[in-house]
Amino acid sequence: MNLFLTISFSSIASGLHNWLGTTIQSHMLAMVTEMVIAGLCLLVFLVPLCFVLGYMERKVAAFMQIRLGPNRVGPKGTLQIVADTVKLLFKEGLTPNASDKFLFNLAPVILVVTCMLAIAPIAFARDFQIWDLSIGVLYVSSISSIAVIGILMAGWSSYNKYSLLGAMRSGAQIVSYELSVGLSLISIVILTGSLRMSDIVMSQETGWWIFRGHIPIIISFVIFLIASTAEINRAPFDLAEAEQELTAGFHTEYSGMKFAMFLLAEYINLFIVSAIAATLFLGGWMPFHIGHWEAFNHIMDFIPSSLWFLGKTFAIIFIIMQFRWTFPRMRVDQLLTLEWKYLLPISMVNTILVTVMAIMGWHF
Amino acid sequence: MSLLGEDIVTEEGEFVVNIGPQHPSTHGVLHLKVWLDGETIKKIQPHLGYIHRSIEKMSESLSYRNFIYATSRMDYLSAHINNQACALCVEKGLQIEATPRAQVIRILFGELTRLQSHLLWWGCTGLDLGAVTPFFYAFREREAIMDIFEETCGARLTQNYCVPGGVMADIHPNFQNRVKSTLKQIKSKFDEYDELLSGNVIFEMRTKGVGYLSPEDAISFGCTGATARGSGVSCDIRKWFPYDGYEKVAFKEILGQGGDCYARYMVRMAEMKESVYIIEQLIDNIPEGDFQAKTKMVLKLPKGEFYQRVETARGELGVYIVSDGAASPYRIKYRSPNFSNLSALETMAKGSKIGDLVAIMSTIDLVIPDVDR
């Protein structure tokens, strides 16, 4: 326990950096090696994360639908998702005859790569961040909007009418909801005065923004949850893969490992969205602090920062999962009406309110 | 010319999509050819016959006792009511009537059938609109009803319980208690259903004002059941042409307003409550006596034509028997509710979106084997 508290992730990282710098002569090669190691760490983290999320989704669904969920493979069914993955790995990856094979194979890769890129500036724990760049928030929102290209590509290259319809829906949806997501993020950026993720987390040392920012921040938190659920194509906004209308939408023709990559991307996206919400509104890895209550704050610090971060993130994931198993799906025109007539105007007015609030210093 | 056929895009720039015969929301092997302009539906052409089993022709070589069982496979969710229609029609030809005990048992089974059919429909409506959870809630109660069927007649779905003159066997001694406890359970869940789906904002957005069917259209297409009653057309056979003693039971005919998906939905939800009400009146008043009237071993209908209609869970089912005096029917024709209801689909769905098409199909409550027979 003591060891865990004293050795911080940054000391490991800087130790590695120094060791690489001294052992490898070429500066370029040292940097590349460091990046590869970081990428491998990311993969080692993300794949089990998707297993956890997949298991969690099935258990949450079962809990809401008065049934048991997976309970046969492994203790309490925990290995079910591993079994499913093995099945997907060994399945034949069919490529439709008339499809554009290059784009068809490229699309899932683009989706997975973009969501892995977007994970870079997220702070998992105190001093544990892959890339603390100065435009963190902007970077995440711009990288995640590249994903739409992957979806459009998949829909177009499949040469399937359902896929094409799904991709078209998805394009319209993601592009529109991007605006609301951006505006709700901006409200925090205005209060913090920085786009850097670590600055945003540090600014919440005396209290998380959702408690300090009055009603406008709560509004932007809600808007962020709705809009980002739409942006990652989850129910009730899963029009792009509306099972009852378009069989499986843009990934109708995908099978085997390529299909698994879509699934992987979906779960990583879910994690990223929740992580961003946790970082910006709920303080990221920052423990629950109340103003200047030193004793209380000190006790809270004893809980490891990574647990704080993961706890908050999974709480939000749980909420988004509950959406999926509660609501019917919206229709495509209603979806766009919701964005352009309600969410966008509200978040615009909200941004102005937050700006006034920041200028006048009306927050805690 | 391409792999998908020459008409991907028509000359007018319409996109042709084949929905079905294998598709999650057609509830069977219905094939809809849909002409789309973007997401808007321009034209729908149902292609039938994927599950045609020539039940009508087959019945011509079966005896009057045996042909009844084939009808369980038409509208399998109203299997008992289909059997009842055939049994009633044969009884009409023989000029006999089921015993009073058998009549009450038939009504009880008929209403339980309606209840389980509507429960399944409710779950599927949720499923079609993208809410998966209602399906499991509906099945929880439906299973209890299926268990009642199983206890008395051995089968869960295709009961084959009706015979000319009554029912095949007496009810299980436990039947009354079990029905009462199941009804208690179902009644306590109606509010939960409303909370989960009926009162949901997105559900109302998806169904209100969608798939409008005017009363005139409903009549001219021959729509019956909740599809027509949602448009305010009174067509409940149980009220208009009572059979098996429905005239002695107090119940309301539910009429909807608006003729949209929401109206049809509400009609069915209210019908479930009416079915519960009917069963409650009868469950303690099953008359003593024989469960089957005495009939000859080989039934022969006199020369002539006989017609009997009943109200299934989906609408009016008509059985038309032409007899030449032999031991098997000369010709049989079924007027199935789903076929007529399906014909109104294009009128309802024209100009709406693909998502609406799914909502409309689920509120018509199609059972495809009944369309094709």
Task: Name the descriptors.
heterodimer, A: 364 residues, mainly alpha, 2 domains, two-stranded antiparallel ribbon, globular, disordered N terminus, B: 373 residues, alpha+beta, Cytochrome-c3 Hydrogenase, chain B, 3-stranded antiparallel β-sheet, 15 helices, 8 strands, 12% strand
Explained architecture:
- Chain A contains 16 helices and two strands.
- Chain A is mainly alpha-helical and 364 residues long.
- Chain A has two domains: 1-90, no CATH class; 91-360, no CATH class.
- The two termini of chain A are 35 Å apart.
- Chain B has one domain: Cytochrome-c3 Hydrogenase, chain B, CATH 1.10.645.10.
- Chain B has 373 residues and is of the alpha+beta class.
- In chain B, the strands form three sheets. Chain B has a three-stranded antiparallel sheet with strand order 1-2-3.
- Chain B is globular.
- Chain B contains 15 helices and eight strands.
- Chains A and B meet through α8, α12 and α16 of A and α4, α5, α7 and α14 of B.
Along the chain, the helix and strand elements of chain A come as HHHHHEEHHHHHHHHHHH
Integer count of domains of chain A: 2
Measured on Cα atoms, how large is the radius of gyration of chain B? 21 Å
Mean pLDDT value of chain B: 87
Number of strands of chain A: 2
The major beta sheet of chain B can be summarized as: 3 strands, antiparallel
Helix/strand layout:
The complex is a heterodimer of chains A (364) and B (373).
Chain A: H1 2-6, H2 9-23, H3 27-64, H4 80-90, H5 101-118, E1 123-125, E2 128-129, H6 136-144, H7 147-157, H8 161-192, H9 197-202, H10 209-212, H11 214-231, H12 243-246, H13 256-281, H14 294-301, H15 305-324, H16 332-360
Antiparallel strand pairs in A: 1-2
Chain B: E1 15-19, E2 31-37, E3 40-47, H1 55-59, H2 67-70, H3 79-94, H4 100-128, H5 133-153, E4 162-163, E5 166-167, H6 175-198, H7 201-207, H8 215-220, H9 225-229, H10 237-240, H11 261-283, E6 304-311, E7 316-323, E8 331-335, H12 337-343, H13 345-349, H14 354-364, H15 368-372
Antiparallel strand pairs in B: 1-2, 2-3, 4-5, 6-7, 7-8
Helix pairs in contact in B: 3-4, 4-5, 4-11, 4-14, 5-6, 6-11, 11-14
